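Onboarding guide, step 5: your first structure request.
Type a short instruction followed by the sequence, for example:

Predict the 3D structure of this protein.
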Amino acid sequence: MTHPYVQAWREFVPSLPPFLPDGDDALRGVSFLVQPSPSDAGGADGQQVAEDSSFHLGLLPQPFHGRVEDARIYVLMLNPGYKPRDYTWESGKTGYRDSLVEGYSGRTPMLFLNPTYAEHPGYRWWWVKSGLRHIVQRLARSRAIAAAEAQREVALKLAAVELLPYHSRRFRHRELLGELRSVVLARQFIHEYVLPRAHQGECGVVVARGNWGWNLKETDNVVVYSGAEPVSAHLGPNTRGGKLILHLLGAE
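The system replies with structure tokens like these:
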């Protein structure tokens, strides 16, 4: 039976901004934007831009990327970041917006491991900054396969799940999380569906950011980043999360 979290996003049909699924109307009471911020055009100094915590509800929500029902690896995050180019990508003719909508099915590979979107800020974060490219390289060497094949395998086996699906430059308003159906369902999905699978050895979980919201405890097949680890949320081969990923891929 499909978990209510996955079903809710399969039924979500974005029409006009602000893009809010049923049960998330509490966000209408906080600062949000449906187009690029005036500060993106240089109308504010760097500090003001850095402190901007507006939710960008003119961008499609990103609750997860990947095959969320049968993933081998789950990376739990806080919420999608924001770059002004996100609006350009979603309004362009690249097919990117269609891929986002298709991803709500939970049946597509991890979007930000698709080289088609190599210039997107999200791809650059997951592929370069998080260190997943080094995981792919290690897998390719371990299996003696081409890097492109290894990348496709990781894209099929890794799912990223956001606690809050809305873009922002900075995250605030923790007090609203309990009022948002999307957040409640995300937590339920992890605790009711993913954790039992992890405890049975069917998958693993890396809580890279936001465990104050996920509330997971570290056990076998569950790594919870702490201290300075969530700042970078690195997943390279020498990190605790990366080592679990390699183990689950059989590429230690």
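Each response can be followed by summary notes, for example: Residues 42-48 have pLDDT under 50 and may be disordered.
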